[in-house]
Specification:
This protein is an alpha/beta fold. Helices cover 35% and strands 9% of the residues. Helix 3 links the parallel strand 1 and strand 2. It starts with a helix and ends with a helix.
C-alpha cells in the first residue's frame, strides 16, 4: 500500500532539510581538496553572509574560475569564442598572476576551474599552474576538447601536475556526429590523447586525473548515447550527459531532456561564493560574462605587448595545431617564444578590494532590497534570470503569496540572456551578428 501523499511530501522535505544541513556544516568534498580550519571557517562565514544578503563581505570565495586562455582551436557555434566574438584581447594566463591570486585566496579555496572560454591545453604553463594549486591542497579541474597534438611527455606532464578532474568534451561517438557541434574537432585525435593520458596514469601509478566523457545532448546526437557509454567504459571514463544549449529557441520544446531541476529562487552563488577571473585579470560577476565591458573590476589592467607597442595579432591556433607537430608536447601556438599571444601581467590591485567594490555591492543589493526599490539597470546582473526570479519571488511573498512563484524558465533562457548581450563595439569591430550565430547553430 502506497504511503499517503502528505507523508511522502513530509519525508521529501525532511531529506532536503538534512541535505541542506549537511551543506551548511561541511562543504562538498571536491577530489583532492585538503580541508583545513581556515577553509572551513571561511566556508561557514561565506554561507552565513550569503544567507543574510551581506553586501560588504568579509569571507573569501570558496570556488575560483580562472581562465588559462581565451584562445581556442575549435569553432563551437553556441560559444562566444567559437562564434569568433572578441570579448577581450587574446592572451595566456601567466604563472605570476596565478601565484599572486593564490597567495591571497589559496588558503580558503576548495576548487579551481582552469577554463571558461578557451582551450586550457593551449597554455604551455597550464601544468605548472595546476601543480601550484594542487600543492596548496586545492582541488583542480579542466574541461578540454583534447583535439590538440599531444605526445607522451605532455600526457605525463598532465598526470604529474596533480590535476584531479579532466573533463573531455565529446558530443558524439562518430566523427560525423561529433563535428556538427565541435567544429574543426578531430575525434580520433581526441581518443588517442585520452589513451595517452591513461597510459601515463598507469606508468606513473596515478589514479588521477579522473577522466569524464562530457556529452552535451542535442537532437542530432541522441542516437549515439549508448555507443558513447560503451566507449567511455572502454576508456575508463565516467559519462556525464547534460543538455546542450543553442542560440534562440530551445531545441527540446517538450523539455524531455532537461536533466536539471526547475529554477528555485535564491541569492546568486557567484556574488558570494564563486569568483571568476579572466585571462587578462578582469574580474567578472559570473562565468557567463564574456565581454570586458561587463567586468566588475580588474586586478591586471595591462598586458605585455611588443616592446610597449600595440598588441600583436593573435596566432591562428587552428592552423598551427593542424600543421605543426608537437615539440615536447607543445604546439607552436603554446611556445613562450611566440609573440602573437601575450602573457598577462599583474598589478597591485588586491582581489578582495575588487570583490567589495561598488559594482559587486550594488549587485548583492539586488538580492537584499525590497521588491520595488530602484536598482542599477546598467549592471549585467540586473536582468539575469537568477536576479529576475529572486525579484519575482520577493514580489510574490510581499503580496501574500505562498510557496515559490511560478517561473517558466526554459533551460535555454539563461544562456540566451548572456549570449544576446553585446556591447556597442560588437558591430563596429566586424563581429558576427547574433542573427547569423543563430543561423549557424544546430537545431536539427
Amino acid at each position: 500500500m502506497h504511503k499517503p501523499v502528505v507523508v511522502r511530501k513530509a519525508i521529501n522535505r525532511s531529506r532536503r532539510t538534512y541535505e541542506d544541513g549537511k551543506r551548511w556544516l561541511l562543504p562538498y568534498k571536491y577530489p583532492g581538496v585538503r580541508l583545513t580550519p581556515t577553509r572551513l571557517l571561511n566556508y561557514w562565514h561565506g554561507r552565513w553572509e550569503r544567507s543574510r544578503g551581506v553586501e560588504n563581505v568579509r569571507a573569501y570565495p570558496t570556488m575560483l574560475t580562472i581562465e588559462a586562455t581565451n584562445v581556442c582551436n575549435l569553432r563551437c557555434p553556441a560559444c562566444f569564442t567559437g562564434a569568433s566574438q572578441a570579448g577581450r584581447d587574446k592572451s595566456m594566463l601567466s604563472p605570476t598572476m596565478l601565484d599572486r591570486v593564490l597567495n591571497e585566496l589559496g588558503s580558503r579555496l576548495l576548487q579551481i576551474e582552469f577554463y571558461n572560454w578557451g582551450e586550457p591545453l593551449l597554455n604551455k604553463d597550464l601544468c605548472p599552474m595546476i601543480r601550484n594549486a594542487a600543492d596548496r591542497g586545492i582541488s583542480t579541474i579542466i574541461s578540454s576538447n583534447m583535439s590538440v597534438p599531444m605526445d607522451d611527455a605532455r600526457a605525463e606532464e598532465i598526470v604529474r601536475s596533480g590535476l584531479n578532474i579532466l573533463g573531455v568534451s565529446v558530443d558524439g561517438a562518430t566523427q560525423e556526429v561529433y563535428e556538427q557541434y565541435r567544429v574543426r574537432g578531430n575525434l580520433a585525435l581526441l581518443f588517442e590523447n585520452v589513451r595517452k593520458v591513461n597510459a601515463a596514469k598507469k606508468k606513473l601509478n596515478s589514479k588521477t586525473p579522473q577522466l569524464v566523457y562530457e556529452y552535451h545532448l542535442f537532437k542530432h546526437n541522441l542516437h549515439e548515447v549508448d555507443e558513447a557509454r560503451r566507449i567511455a567504459n572502454e576508456l575508463g571514463m565516467s559519462l556525464r550527459i547534460s543538455k546542450g544549449w543553442v542560440a534562440g529557441p530551445d531545441w527540446d520544446t517538450e523539455r524531455e531532456f532537461d536533466f536539471e531541476h526547475d529554477p528555485q529562487p535564491g541569492r546568486c552563488s557567484f556574488l558570494w561564493d564563486h569568483a571568476v577571473i579572466h585571462n587578462d585579470g578582469g574580474v567578472a560577476p559570473c562565468c557567463a560574462v564574456f565581454y570586458k565591458e561587463d567586468d566588475y573590476g580588474t586586478i591586471a589592467p595591462a598586458a605585455v605587448t611588443n616592446g610597449g607597442r600595440a598588441p600583436l595579432p593573435v596566432v591562428d591556433v587552428v592552423n598551427v595545431a593542424q600543421a605543426s607537430p608537437p615539440v615536447n608536447g607543445r604546439t607552436a601556438a603554446m611556445s613562450s617564444a611566440e609573440p602573437g599571444v601575450p602573457l598577462s601581467t599583474f598589478h597591485d590591485q588586491k582581489f578582495h578590494d575588487v570583490w567589495n567594490n561598488d559594482n559587486f555591492r550594488r549587485s548583492r543589493r539586488m538580492f537584499a532590497a525590497k521588491p520595488n526599490e530602484p536598482r542599477d539597470t546598467s549592471l549585467v546582473c540586473y536582468d539575469c534570470p537568477v536576479t529576475d526570479l529572486w525579484r519575482k519571488q520577493r514580489t510574490h511573498v510581499a503580496s501574500g503569496g505562498a510557496g515559490n512563484v511560478a517561473y517558466p524558465l526554459a533551460y535555454n533562457d539563461g544562456f540566451n540572456y548572456f549570449f544576446s548581450r553585446r556591447p556597442e563595439r560588437a558591430t563596429s569591430e566586424g563581429l558576427i551578428p547574433l542573427a547569423e550565430v543563430k543561423e549557424k547553430t544546430i537545431v536539427v
